Amino acid sequence: MGKVTIITGEMDAGKTTELVRRYHELPAGTADGFASTKAFSEQGVFEGYDLRRLATGKTVPFIRLRKADELLAQQDGCIFDRFIFLREPLAAAEQAIRDILSDPSVRTVLLDEIGPVELQGNGFCRALKVLLESDKELYLCINRKNLDSVTKIFGIAAYQLIEVED
After folding, report:
1. Domain boundaries of the chain, sorted by first residue
2. What is the pLDDT of residues 142-157, one digit of tens each?
3. 24-36 per-position pLDDT tens digit
C-alpha cells in the first residue's frame, strides 16, 4: 500500500474542493482520478452528481436523484437512499482506474466520496481495493461519519488526515 491521505469533513464542508486543489498542486502528468461534482438542472434544481476525470476534465452523469415512481432495471444502476448510481459511468471509471494503475508516470490517484455505498460492496469498492493494493499514493475523500468504518473495513491503518471545516 502506498501513502494514503484522507480528506474528511462533514457534508458540504469542501472535501471535493480540497481534493481538486491538491490535484492541481501536483506536477502535471503525475496524478489522475475522479471527483464527484454537484449537478443542477437549467433551472438550478439539484439533480445529483456528475463524475469528473481530473486529468481530462471530462464530466459524465453519475448519480441522480431517484423519482418516487421510477423503476430501475438492474443493468442501469444501483439504488442507495434517494439516489441511483449509474452503472455505465462507474464501469468506465473502474476501467480508467485500471489504466491509471498501469501508467508508471501517474504516481498519485485521487478518488472522491468513499462511503456507505462502498461499505456495502458497491460503487468504487472494487476499484478502491485494487488502489489500496498498489504502490500509488492515494487521496481519498471520506465523510467524517464514515471515516472509522471505511478505514476499518478496507484495512487502512496508516494514513494522513486532512480535516476540512466549513
Report:
1. 4-37+87-163
2. 999 999 999 999 999 9
3. 999 999 999 999 9
Most distant CA pair in the chain, distance: 47
Spatial separation of the C-alpha atoms in residues 83 and 127, rounded to whole Å: 20
Helices 87-101 and 125-133: angle between axes, nearest 10 degrees: 10
Distances in Å between the Cα of 28 and the Cα atoms of 22, 34, 95, 149, 156 are 12, 16, 21, 33, 27
Q: Taken in order 31, 89, 153, 146, is the CA torsion positive or negative?
A: positive
Euclidean distance between the first and final Cα of the chain, in Å? 31
- The helix (H) or strand (E) run that includes residue 161 is strand 160-163
Question: Whole-model pTM?
Answer: 0.89
Please provide the CATH number assigned to the domain covering 4-37+87-163.
3.40.50.300
Strand partners, 143: 9
